[in-house]
């Protein structure tokens, strides 16, 4: 596969409503898109790093710098780009920076799917025609406001409600939600907001029949999560702690969790996401796909990933309209009344990029070409 050019763009996109977690409040997104042109085809990737290095050690600005100065030139000048799975080898000299790496690798997988004339989901080994969808709800200004939002999302068909939580916004919230909807699939996500000293408090979460408690303790921990899981009936789901297959195997061996959340950017792209999926499947641990407030480009990647066999729990892959007044793809991602997204069965990601809108929202742009083309 010859890489003709890599066009990196930063877009500014306002969210429909602010999204609050234990990290803080996000009102708009600085989205990095990579457009890779190869032999008449164009593949797209999206960087899921946040504006600031709170969820991970990467940010919008660090990812831009690493792609422009390191990863982009490595990929553009490489003669080893046979398929998406080639990227980890090409990028191996650069440590970490997984979200930056995923930006480019996922675009190569998109290109490969187009070249092979198959959908991205089929190229990855997907087995589904549709995926079950859940919704992630940020911390609200009041419980009545949250209840109103939940009612709306359930009416839209979403199969699972996930509540962001933190000390002071947990037990009372769960109690009010469970009293109102005793039978819904409900989970919570702490984003590392608690410590082991909170174990007695976290054990009280068992009363609310939660599907899981996501990443309650330190973002880089297996050991203390293992101690906590022994005290809980509710499954712990690890998110931030899992960066690769080795982490997945360690967490399963230590019994640190019973569920794993796979985020494409966090693990470095499709190659490692598939490896984590397979490791969990071989050991009977279910996985699901987490979201990072992506535009339609990243969302289409999540849809394809979620088609793999062991994605047996509803993910955070929701409709475009939940986050954006206007998404940058067409058609928009939509969820049917059964709470499912139908997976496109056309070559590549299955969604066209709205170039007029991308250009209008772009605030900076840089083109990387192969060394061979620079004379």
Question: Unreliable runs, pLDDT <50, ≥5 residues?
Answer: none
Number of domains: 2
Shape: globular
The proportion of strand residues reads 15-25%
SSE ordering: EEEHHHHEEHEHEHEHEHEHHEHEEEHE
CATH architecture of the largest domain: Alpha-Beta Barrel
Number of helices: 13
Query: Looking at the chains present, what oligomeric state does this protein adopt?
Result: single chain
CATH topology of the largest domain: TIM Barrel
Output the CATH class name of the largest domain: Alpha Beta
Output mean pLDDT. Answer: 94
How are strands sequenced across the largest beta sheet? 5-6-7-8-9-10-11
| Helix percentage | 25-40%
Radius of gyration: 20 Å
**Overall SS class:** alpha/beta
How far do the termini sit from each other? 21 Å
Major sheet size, sense and barrel closure: 7 strands, parallel
Topology, number of strands: 15
């Amino acid at each position: 596969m010859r890489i003709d050019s890599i066009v990196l763009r930063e877009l500014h996109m306002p969210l429909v409503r602010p999204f609050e977690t234990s990290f803080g409040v996000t009102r708009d997104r600085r989205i990095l898109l990579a457009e890779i042109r190869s032999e008449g085809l164009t593949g797209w990737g999206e960087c899921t790093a946040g504006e600031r290095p709170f969820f991970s050690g990467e940010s919008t600005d660090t990812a831009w710098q690493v792609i422009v100065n390191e990863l982009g030139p490595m990929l553009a000048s490489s003669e080893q780009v046979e398929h998406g799975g080639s990227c980890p080898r090409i990028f191996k000299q650069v440590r970490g920076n997984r979200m930056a790496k995923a930006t480019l690798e996922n675009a190569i997988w998109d290109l490969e799917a187009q070249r092979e004339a198959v959908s991205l989901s089929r190229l990855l080994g997907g087995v589904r025609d549709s995926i079950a969808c859940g919704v992630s709800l940020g911390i609200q200004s009041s419980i009545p406001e949250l209840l109103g939002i939940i009612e709306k999302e359930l009416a839209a068909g979403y199969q699972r409600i996930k509540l962001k939580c933190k000390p002071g916004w947990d037990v009372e919230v769960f109690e009010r939600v469970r009293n109102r909807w005793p039978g819904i699939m409900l989970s919570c996500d702490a984003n590392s907001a608690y410590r082991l000293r909170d174990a007695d408090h976290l054990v009280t979460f068992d009363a609310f029949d939660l599907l899981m408690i996501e990443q309650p303790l330190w973002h880089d921990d297996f050991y203390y999560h293992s101690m906590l899981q022994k005290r809980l009936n509710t499954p712990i789901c690890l998110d931030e702690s899992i960066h690769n297959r080795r982490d997945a195997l360690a967490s399963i061996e230590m019994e640190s969790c019973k569920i794993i959340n796979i985020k494409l950017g966090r693990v470095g792209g499709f190659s490692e996401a598939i490896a984590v999926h397979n490791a969990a499947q071989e050991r009977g641990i279910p996985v699901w796909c987490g979201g990072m407030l992506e535009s339609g480009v990243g969302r289409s990647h999540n849809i394809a990933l979620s088609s793999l066999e062991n994605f047996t729990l509803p993910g955070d892959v929701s409709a475009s309209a939940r986050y954006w007044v206007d998404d940058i793809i067409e058609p928009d991602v939509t969820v049917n009344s059964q709470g499912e997204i139908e997976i496109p069965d056309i070559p590549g990601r299955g969604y066209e990029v709205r170039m007029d809108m991308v250009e209008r929202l772009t605030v900076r742009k840089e083109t990387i070409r192969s060394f061979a083309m620079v004379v």
